[in-house]
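Backbone shapes recur. Consider a single case.
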Amino acid sequence: MSILALDIGWGTTLAVKTLVVMLLIPLGALIFGYVFLFKMMAHMQSRLGPMESGGFHGWFQLVGDGIKFVQKEDIFPEKADRHVMALAPFIVMLSTFLVFLVVPAGPRIVVAPLDVGVFYALAVSSLSVIGVVMAGWASANKYALISALRATGQLIAYEVPLVLAVVGVVIQSGTMSLQGIVLAQRDGAIFGWDGIGHPFVLTQIVGFTLFIVAAQAELTQPPFDMPVAESEIVGGYMVEYSGFRFLLFFLAEFGTAFAFAALAATLFLGGWALPGVHGGAADAFGPVVVLVKVMFVAFLMFWARFTYPRMREDQLQALAWKWLIPIALVNILVTGALKVVF
């Protein structure tokens, strides 16, 4: 991440990069939790609590919830595997941390500009299920174990359409580098007009829709929240967690939502690119542009979360294998054919 032209050692650079990425997870979780979970849902469902609790427009609700979780006792069941159970939320957090390493926020603002950034991001995003399985098994609770098995099956089903949805973007851009994909959209043209570049959402609207649906399922958010269904399995793999470790799962969920929204904004909406802005100005405005696009994508994701009821397990699997995957394959064939022709 070469933002400033300073001659600093690799150790200092690594420490700065690590600190920035680590701050992104709680910051993203706080932004999404406040804007969408407390405010947007409160307006849509006429909930008074998140709108009135302290200060202007109920801003203290999120702070109060954080204080509540931190002061709670960290409890382990008697028959639980304490070490595995304690480590599980950190594994889930690590998966989110690794995704942010390759997401660019400007021409020079990226921690690790990998040539296979797309492959890397999709690979590490699936590591969170390991932490979920660890939490479910180590809790010594049958509901937690059932939840972990549900989450595993859901990940296997929706990881396929998530990857296939991105293949069309890779075909159009001709690269697997996230930075390269942004540049391809910035420097592209629509029927010869390059006023706004060529955001891939215009030609990959099918892939964009598939990505959002699959990401929703990867996050286990409604209507795909079978692994944490309170009415069926009493809260899922987090049922035996309390205090700070429960808060870590909450931060990981919303931090991962931020990461998937950032990936969607980069792959389909042009990322940090802004028409007519180049060089140092792009580095200055890039993070703001990315944040605006991330909030738009997140709005779509949370709108679905607050609108649709939970699906049955068979409906979830049928949606992935009978509909999303075939549609994604057709999208790849059409994109490849058009790429060859034009």
Q: What stands out?
A: The mean pLDDT is 86. The radius of gyration is 21 Å.
